[in-house]
Structure formats: structure tokens, C-alpha cells
Amino acid sequence: MRVSILRQKSAESEPYREIFEYDGSPDNTIAVLLDHINYNDDITDIYGKRTDRISWECSCLQGICGACAMVINGVPALACETFVRDLKGEEIDIRPLSKFPVIRDLIVDRTSIHENLKQTNIYIGEYQPSEKSSHAQQYITAKCLKCGLCLEVCPNYVNGRNFFGAVFANDCYLAASRNRSKSKEIRGVYSKHFGADCSRSLSCMDVCPMKIPTITSIAMMNRK
Amino acid sequence: MKRVLVIGSGISGMACAVRCARHGVHVMLVSPDPSERSQSIMAAGGINAVIADCDAGDSVACHIEDTLKGGCYLGGRRAVTGLCENGEEILKMLVGLGTVFSVDKQGQPLRRAFGGQTYKRTYYCGASTGKQIVSALVMEARRFEAEGLIERRLRCCFHSALIHDGVCYGALLYDETANKPEAVLADAVVMATGGQNALFGKTTGSTQCDGYAEGRLFMQGAALKNLEFIQFHPTTIETPQKRMLISEAARGEGGRLFYERDGKRIYFMEEKYGAKGNLMTRDVISREMGAVKEQVYLDISFLGKKLIDERLPEVRDICAKYGSIDVYTQPIPVSPSVHFFMGGFAVHSHHETNIRSLFAVGECASMYHGANRLGGNSLLAAMYSGGVAAEEIAGRPEVGRAPDFGKFISQEYDKMQERQSADSPFPVMYIRDMLAESMRSHMGIVRDEKSLDEGISDVEHLLSVAEHLRYDSSVRHYTNYSLTGILTLARATLQCARSRKESRGAHYRSDAPKTSDEYGFSTIITYDGGSYNVRLDKEHEYES
Ligand SMILES: Cc1cc2nc3c(=O)[nH]c(=O)nc-3n(C[C@H](O)[C@H](O)[C@H](O)COP(=O)(O)OP(=O)(O)OC[C@H]3O[C@@H](n4cnc5c(N)ncnc54)[C@H](O)[C@@H]3O)c2cc1C
Ligand code: FES
After folding, report:
1. B158 lines ligand 1 (CB under 6 A)
2. Does residue B423 have a pLDDT over 80?
3. pLDDT tier at B120, thresholds 50, 70, 90
4. Does CATH number 1.10.1060.10 belong to domain A111-223?
5. Ligand 2 site, residue A60, Cβ cutoff 6 A
6. According to the model, what pLDDT value does residue A188 have?
7. B285, B313, B337: which is the final residue of a domain?
8. Interchain CB contact of B146 with A (< 8 Å)
9. Residue B544 has what pLDDT?
10. Residue B429 lies in a domain
């Protein structure tokens, strides 16, 4: 099976494509496939040309840390829980998330996610729950991986300068619902950087590895 | 202003950073990736604490006794007392930060039973305790980041410490974004780099925990302790890249271990230990499984779909996703895997190493767990140790002017450049794979001197190869330069296991199967220009 990878040597250089042959099992994940291409033998493309090893990130290798987020056959997904057998077509297409600056190959710089939350002071501070708070929603939003898949798929998210996306909305909800005294302040920045521009395509929910019902966070944040 | 460098941003690193910041101490928090990628997020089961409203009969004294007993009395009593006495305070702090614990109708955190403990005292957050604690600490750290007291440095790795005359003045980091080393001076350096997974390749944990920092600091003079004590978890399923943990809850709910011989199921744990055989401690089950030639299975199918869906959904999902196993109808093929490292930096009660101003906290420090760890105690220790180190650092005067490290820095830089300049197609990952294979066969669940000697000679060989290796420039600098430190740590680990000629806790020697009073002390290992010096800590230098 052919695997086409969009590569880039550094932040400043131009992207280019390289095609590899994968002869491993279809029961492997894309994370295993990448290791297989990198380390099964000398790394060569389908034309036999020796090339660099493909850079990508991982940590947990079981879909709970968000390190390996990338775009696989056009769908933003985690490489370590996407199986070759589930992909359609003759060729697998892999590229880095496009809404973040590329560092090298499939590694992107996702610091904007953390920077935006920091700049807007989204933290709990002190636990003072509001009366109507939903434990189940807080539990699931606190599982957010900060992987960036929701931003990749979002039609409104461009580069994180004004609109901060679902990852921001869910952290806003978590902080506001766990500390009622910060709720008003958080609703202000929420509205400015999310509420006002979200067009409710909700594609973020389709790709979220933790299956966070962002729509519930939105509904709770809009409730007065 | 006092400045602290914290290396590693899992639970222990963040706990230390937040506590320092509360004292107005400036923290640089360094890790290759954000805290959401640390191994801490993988902790599922829970965190131990005895609170005022504990189970009838339970007490802090009982938690202390369980911990010491679990560790075969190698954990320091004073240190363990501090740990357990602070359980309630730590739980309160985590609740106060907004951690989403599982709660009862009154909003009080729920507790569950965990192996090796006399009473229920493990507080949990559904099946993602570590992740929920990380999320709460990330928010609290963010608050101090916004105030400028915590400065996070991502894509940055530890390279070496700046040490002069037994005092640490900072560290040399490698900045992967700028692609160059950077020296950072600090009043204290806190290592919070987690376990040593890379020695074994596939484990239940994260690929980010590689033990390099311990290996490198060991070479720079830091004493290490109890490296031979490595906990194996009996029930994991193997995938091409890792070992996935099948929670103890599966056996807690009634799951049965068996193997098949001549078409018949042999429930070996029940046959040997009776009805509760499947609930024996992790090391006993792991050893029994190691003695079985056939594939061992864990059967939960008979528990029924309803119970599995309600109580063991993670087990069901992991098996379906990564093993194509339908647990409603099929048994799960399981085998033991390296899971937790009781050994690490030798530290004094306030978590300072033998090098002044160099501290170690969390799983990379060896202190509370002795020869074996109780489930739920490591999250407690990560929180507690981070706090203890921070209090000590905050109370100390600033270190003052650092000596000139210019020569050391340029030497290290030149070494890196030289290795990098001639490209090699032979990647260090191949050597890491060879190391893991050797460690798995010689540092496994059952050890003996002959096999450990073979392991030592394997690692010596790999070390000599690593000395002459040119780097593969297409992988991260860190992957390349970390190799020697990782190999050295492996070599030290084998040496510790060879020296302990008895069996105790997680260390089992088939050529010395009994526990011996003579060895009732911690192992301390130091490095001196290529020689590995082991002694027993009979004076309790590191346990007070
Ligand atoms: C599957 C699993 C389940 C577990 N369940 C439980 C449980 O239920 N209860 C419990 O008490 N314990 C549990 N544990 C153990 C517990 O999770 C760990 O002991 C604890 O989280 C360790 O925290 P830490 O802060 O010391 O290290 P980690 O969370 O491992 O963090 C290490 C940090 O150091 C960084 N780092 C590493 N090397 C370098 C370097 N060279 N330079 C810079 N940074 C570096 C990493 O990137 C990371 O940020 C479990 C472990 C696993 C694997
Ligand atoms: S490596 Fe953690 S989600 Fe893929």
C-alpha cells in the first residue's frame, strides 16, 4: 500500500510530498505504520531514494494524550488510534495539522492553544461550584487533550488570533462552572473569542477523541 | 528574585512549580511537550489518602503501615509518615483547585478499595484520575503563568546540570525550536522527569519517560537508589508499540486467569492460592505467570454484558480497539509488563539529592515505595514530594553568584557538533531496541546472577558502540545525545540487581529466593569515571 506524506524540513522551508510503500499489517495503527517506515530498514521512498526519517510526536500511544494529532486521508485524527484497515482507498494520505505552524514534517507548534487560554485568564482558582453545575459535563470537558483536532476541522478557526475554537469554549465552561465567582468574567472573554463567531457547524464534536459534547458547554455558557 | 528550574511538567513538576509560585519564587517549567502529554495523565485508578471521615478502623497509622509493609520495610519510616499524614491536606488542595473527583450525592469525593491496602482509601475521578488532576494543575499553573511567576518552556529538554564543587547552579537545556543548547542558572534545579521506561522499550507508560536525566546526572555525581525494584503489572495486552494495561478492576470484579493444556483450562492462581488467587499482589501473579509456558488468558466473559458495560467499559474498549477481542465472548491474552519504577534519585527527606540545590521529585525520586509500591501511592507521592521540595527551596537563601561554566558548556556543545557533523544512517533507536531486548531477558521478573552478568556484558558492548556512533541527523538532537545516559542507567540498574543477592518485593532472584536480613537496606549506587559502586545504606543516609 502507498503512503503519501506531506513533509517539511523546518519551519522556514517549503513543504514537499514523499511516497512510501507500506507492507505491514492492516491491523496496525498509523503510528505503527510511521515507525515501520522509519525503522524497518533504511528509509527509502518508492523510487528507492534514501531519505530522512519522518518526524512525528507521540507519548501514550493509546489515544489519551493528543500528541499524535495529524490529518489522515483528509480527516483530522490521532495516529495511534487510526487503523490502516479502516481507511478507504488505495493510498493513505498523511499531512500535518494545517492550522498550526509546522516545526518539522508532522510536528506542529500548538502553543497558541495554551497561550490563548493564558492571555484570557481561564483558570478555576478556587473551587466554588455553581448550584446547577453538571458533574458529567465537567468531567468530560476536563478530559480535553488540547490536541487541536477540533480547531483543524472548524470552519471558523483560522489561526487563533481572534476566534479560539472549541478547545477554548470547553475550558471556559470548566473554569466558570467550577468557580461561580469567575463566571461573569469568563463569559465576557468567551463571548468575544468564541460565542460571537461560532457558526455551530459542530464538526468539532465529530473529530474529538474524547467525544466532548461541546454543544452542551455552549448551551451552559449561553445560559444566564 | 529567587529562580527555580523545574524539569518535567507531569503532576510532580507542576505540584512543585505551583507551590514555589505561591511563595513568590520564579519557576521555569521545562518539558518537551505540554503537561497534557505527560505520563501522569495515564494514571487511572486513584490517589490514596486517609481523611477524618475515613472507613471505620482506618487511620493514618494504618496507611503508614500498609505502605511500609508493601515496600518490604525499605521505605523510610519518617518519610512515609510525612507522606501519609499529608494525604488529607493534598486531597483537600486538589478538591480546592477544582479537580473533578467522582463524588457522592453530597458532593464528597468517593473512595474505592485498591490492592495491598487494609481499608478503602483510594480517591478517584472516574477512570481518569491522573488526567483530571493534570487538568486542575494545568489551570492553576496557568494562573501563575499569566502573572509571570511560572514560565513554561516547551520543546526544551534537559541536557546536563551545571555543577561545581558539589553544588548545582543550573542546567544546560537543549532548545529544539532554536536548535541549540541553552544554559539556565537557578537557585535550585528540580528533576521531575518520571520513570525509566526506555530501558525496557514497551511498557504501560509514556515514551517520554526515558531515564536519561537520571543516567546523565548519575554520570555527573548524583547517587541513585534501589534501581533493582521495578514493578511489573501482571495483566497487559501487547501491541506492536506498547503494553496496554488491563485494569486490576477486571480481576476485582471476578475476572479469572487461566491457561490451556490439552484442551483443558487450568485456573493456576486459584489452584495454588485458593478462591482469592486472582487477587494476589502484582508481583506474585506476575511471577506465577512467568513460570507458565503457555499463553495466559484473563476471562471476564462470564461476568455478562451488563456488568462489563457498567463497570469495565475501558477494558472492553481497549481490548476491542487494540486487540480485536470481544470480551463478552473471548478471553483476553495477557502478559506481565514493566509498569512502575520504585528506584531513582537517592534523596534526603526534603528531596534534595547528594548534590546541593539539585532536587528530585515524583517517580524519578526513590523514597516512599521501598521494594514495591502500593497502587494509588505514587500520585500521592508525586503531589507530596513536589510540595516538600518547594517548601525547602522557598525557605532557603538565594545561592549567589555562579562560577563560570563557559568551558563546560562549550565542551558539551563541541561534542554534540562533532557527533552531528558526520551523518550516520544507523539510528540510535536500533541500539535502544537492542537494549530493551536485553533488559527484558536479563532484568525480567525472575533474575539470577548468570543472566544479569550477560545483561551487563550486553550493555557494556552497547556503551562501547555508542561511544563511537555518529548521529543520524534526521532525528531529534535529544534522541541522539540521550543514548549514553540511558545505557549508563541500564548498566547501573543491572549492577544493583546483581548486588542484591536475596529476593524482596519486586526483586526476585531464583538463585537467592529468600529474603535476607542482611539486605534489609536500600541499595545506593554511584559512578566514578566508569566504575559502578554499590553499597547498602546501612547508616540511613538517605532515609530519615
Ligand atoms: C498506565 C498507568 C496507570 C497508572 N495508574 C496509577 C494510579 O492509579 N495511581 C497512582 O498513584 N499511580 C499510577 N500510575 C503511576 C503514576 O502515574 C506516576 O508515578 C506519576 O504520574 C508520575 O508523575 P511524575 O510527575 O513523576 O512524572 P511524569 O508524569 O511521567 O512526568 C515526567 C515529565 O518529565 C518530562 N521529561 C522527561 N524527560 C525529560 C527530559 N530529559 N527533559 C525535560 N523533560 C523531561 C516529561 O515530558 C514529563 O513532562 C500509573 C502509571 C501508568 C503508566
Ligand atoms: S500518542 Fe497519545 S494520543 Fe497518540
Report:
1. yes
2. no
3. very high
4. yes
5. yes
6. 96
7. B337
8. yes
9. 53
10. yes
CB pairs A-B closer than 8 Å: 134
- Residue B405 alpha carbon to ligand 1 centre in Å: 31
Q: Domain containing B289 — which CATH number?
A: 3.90.700.10
pLDDT digits (tens, 9 = 90+) for A164-189: 999 999 999 999 999 999 999 999 99
Question: Total structural domains in chain B?
Answer: 2
Q: What is the CATH number of the domain that holds B505?
A: 1.20.58.100
Model confidence at A133, in pLDDT bands (50, 70, 90)? confident
DSSP A61: S
DSSP string, B170-210: EEEEEETTTTEEEEEE-SEEEE-----GGGGSS-SS-TT--
Range A49-67 average pLDDT: 96
Residue B424 has pLDDT above 80, yes or no: no
Q: What local confidence, expressed as pLDDT, does residue A224 receive? A: 61
CA–centroid distance, residue A66 to ligand 2 (Å): 5
Average pLDDT, chain B: 95
Q: What pLDDT, on the 0 to 100 scale, is given for residue A132?
A: 73
Q: Which residues pair with B358 in a beta bridge?
A: B189
Boundaries of domain holding B468: 407-513
Q: Tell me if A15 sits within 8 A of A8, measured CB to CB.
A: yes
Give the mutation candidate from B147, B202, B315, B474 for the A interface (greatest A CB count, under 10 A).
B474
- Let me know whether B417 and B504 are in one domain: yes
Tell me what the mean pLDDT of segment B114-121 comes to.
Answer: 87
Q: Does A210 touch chain B (CB under 8 A)?
A: no
Q: DSSP character for B354?
A: S
ipTM of the complex: 0.97
Can you tell me the distance from the alpha carbon of B162 to that of B169, in angstroms, rounded to the nearest whole number? Answer: 5
Determine the average pLDDT of the residues in B346-350. Answer: 95
Kindly determine whether residue A35 and residue B143, on different chains, have CB atoms separated by under 8 Å: no
Please tell me the distance from the alpha carbon of residue B45 to that of residue B467, in angstroms, as a whole number.
42
Q: What is the mean pLDDT of residues B137-149?
A: 97
Same domain? B419 vs B508: yes
Q: Note whether residue B442 is domain-resident.
A: yes
Domain boundaries, chain A: 2-108, 111-223
List of E strands, A12-156 = 16-21, 69-72, 75-78, 91-95, 102-104, 107-108
> Residue range B61-81: average pLDDT?
95
Q: Is residue B498 situated within a structural domain?
A: yes
Mean pLDDT calculated for residue range B257-274: 96
In a domain, B188, yes or no: no
Q: Cell 566508569 belongs to which residue?
A: B530
Choosing from B281, B302, B337, the residue where a domain stops is B337
> Thinking of the domain A2-108, which architecture would CATH place it in?
Roll (3.10)
Site to probe by mutation for ligand 1, drawn from B6, B12, B39, B101 as the one with most ligand atoms within 8 Å of Cβ, is: B39
> What letter would DSSP give residue A63?
S
Q: Which whole number is the average pLDDT over A24-35? A: 96
Q: How far is CA B399 from CA B5, B264, B350, B355, in A?
A: 13, 68, 17, 13
